[in-house]
């Protein structure tokens, strides 16, 4: 499951002081959903005073761009891709060194 966090900032790039009114937040998220063509596929539900849950609308169709992101990309024969994070390397030695970092961290 992918988890994402949305941070709301004012025009100067600062976090707003206090809570954003629920109607303003819902309107802003609604605009984002419309611009990303997600408004028919997802629904925003307020679960607390400052907590929201985004759920998938049952039997909805995802926007085309989401399907394109999720589609597996073919890796060329002369490229070595990390199975953990998808970073690509020119040699299997570079990939091996990189893969070890995943286990160290």
Q: Could you provide a short overview of the structure?
A:
The chain is α+β, with helices and mostly antiparallel strands and 105 residues long. The protein is built from 3 helices and 4 strands; from the N terminus they run H-E-E-H-E-E-H. It is elongated and about 55 Å long.
Task: Describe the protein in words.
- The protein has 105 residues and is of the alpha+beta class.
- Helix content is 32%, strand content 13%.
- The strands form two sheets. The protein has a two-stranded antiparallel sheet. It has a two-stranded antiparallel ribbon with strand order 3-4.
- The mean pLDDT is 81.
Percent of residues in helical segments? 25-40%
Largest sheet: 2 strands, antiparallel
Strand portion, in percent?
5-15%
Number of strands: 4
Low-confidence stretches: none
Features:
105 residues, alpha+beta, 2 domains, two-stranded antiparallel ribbon, 3 helices
